[in-house]
Amino acid sequence: MKSRLIISIALSLAIAIPSLVSAADYVIDTKGAHAFIQFRIKHLGYSWLSGRFNNFDGTFSYDEAKPNASKVEVNIKTASIDSNHAERDKHLRGKDFLNVDKFPEASFVSTGYKDNGDNTATLSGKLTLHGVTRPVDIAITQIGHGPDPWGGYRRGFEGTTTLKLADYNIDYDLGPASREVELTLSVEGIRQ
Amino acid sequence: MWRNTEHHYGLISISLHWLVALTVIGLFALGLWMVELGYYDPWYRRAPDLHKSIGILLFLTMLLRLVWRTSNPQPLSEGTPLEKKLAHKVHGLLYLLLFSLMISGYLISTADGRAIDVFNLFSVPAIISGLENQEDIAGLVHQILGYSLIALVVLHALAALKHHFIDRDQTLKRMLKPTH
Question: How many other CB atoms are there within 10 angstroms of residue A142's CB atom?
Fold first, then answer.
């Protein structure tokens, strides 16, 4: 009985202490779907085609006193690509594009954050996609932050970047107007 | 002439058999070819539309064939008891594979609730859609069944040739001519 008490105290401390020392850690609210990873690519050069990844998770840390110390990590399940067309999604998951059997995950890990002081920033990091890891810069806008109605604290950002598909060895020819894809990450984090 | 007898296939059964045979081989070739087409190929959209339209018509033809088969006598098969048993099993399996193949194909194209247009004449609505990874699982099943069916077709054809050239019986001939 006594040992159980000690274990439960130790466990409570183990859970409580990290949240005390790093009060600015956030978990991206994918559970409540207040986070979206969307892409768009030109179709033939005549229109925009949009889609998204439905399954991903991630965390970030943000300290208002030291914004340049911010860190972000996001993992994406590539098979969750959804362009609202089953046959196209099947093609996108296949060998011509994401090859999700071989590369089931894509990830982004930040390496730097440069705050511009006007709620915008440049987030640098390494993006791994289709088995290729490359540095990318993401233009960030902080949308807002504050308490939520249910006792938590939330902070949200939007980031955009443009990728050349060929840089990630995705070389299926969709035409000259469709060699780049725009990525938009809209994330809301719940402070832990 | 039209209907089967105990010893002969009628013209309807013979026509249906060869129509289905040619269509199945054609759809297999078309399927293999169309998935490799580049985005700017003129057939990139046309070939899958053709594959789906013909597939739906094949399904209707197979329903007709089943009805005709059950309402006609089946000519007695020739060969040893083991060969007869095996032939019967292979015929059953050909039907089973063919129907599974067509259903799995239907489930790929209707996975998101979209209907299948048949030559812009009519469309077949989605019945089952939105299952987890439906288009991927149905696609894999469709591919495996496609190869399996063709393997079985080769066995079926070799068996017919064996009857013709080795056993020298009527098995192949009666599938070519309604009367001997």
Answer: 16
Q: Domain extents for chain B?
A: 11-175
Q: Answer yes or no: pTM beyond 0.95.
A: no
Question: Per-residue pLDDT tens for B94-143?
Answer: 999 999 999 999 999 999 999 999 999 999 999 999 999 999 999 999 99
Chain A residues within an 8 Å CB radius of B40? 173, 175
- The 8 Å CB, 24+ separation contacts for A113-121 are A113/A67, A113/A68, A113/A69, A113/A70, A113/A71, A113/A72, A113/A140, A114/A68, A115/A67, A115/A68, A115/A70, A121/A67, A121/A70
Q: What backbone torsions phi and psi does residue A135 show, to the nearest 5 degrees? A: -75, 140
Half-sphere exposure of B75 (CA within 13 A, CB side): 20
Residues of chain B with C-beta less than 8 angstroms from the C-beta of A90: 108, 111, 135-136, 139
A134: phi > 0 → left, psi -120 to 50 → alpha, else beta; which? beta
Nearest chain B Cα distance for residue A93, angstroms: 9
> Rounded distance, CA A96 to CA A117, Å?
42
Q: Which domains does chain A have, with CATH numbers?
A: 23-191 (2.40.128.110)
Judge whether residue B7 has pLDDT over 50: yes
Kindly state whether B40 is in contact with chain A, defined as any CB-CB distance less than 8 angstroms.
Answer: yes
Q: Residue A132, SS3?
A: strand
Phi, psi angles (nearest 5°) of residue A120? -115, 160
ipTM confidence score: 0.86
Contact check, Cβ <8 Å, B39/A90: no
* Minimum-distance CB partner of A173 among B40, B135, B136: B40
User: Under a CB-based contact definition with an 8 Å cutoff, are residues A181 and A53 in contact?
Assistant: no
Residue B1: the pLDDT is 85
Question: CA-nearest residue of chain B to A178?
Answer: B39
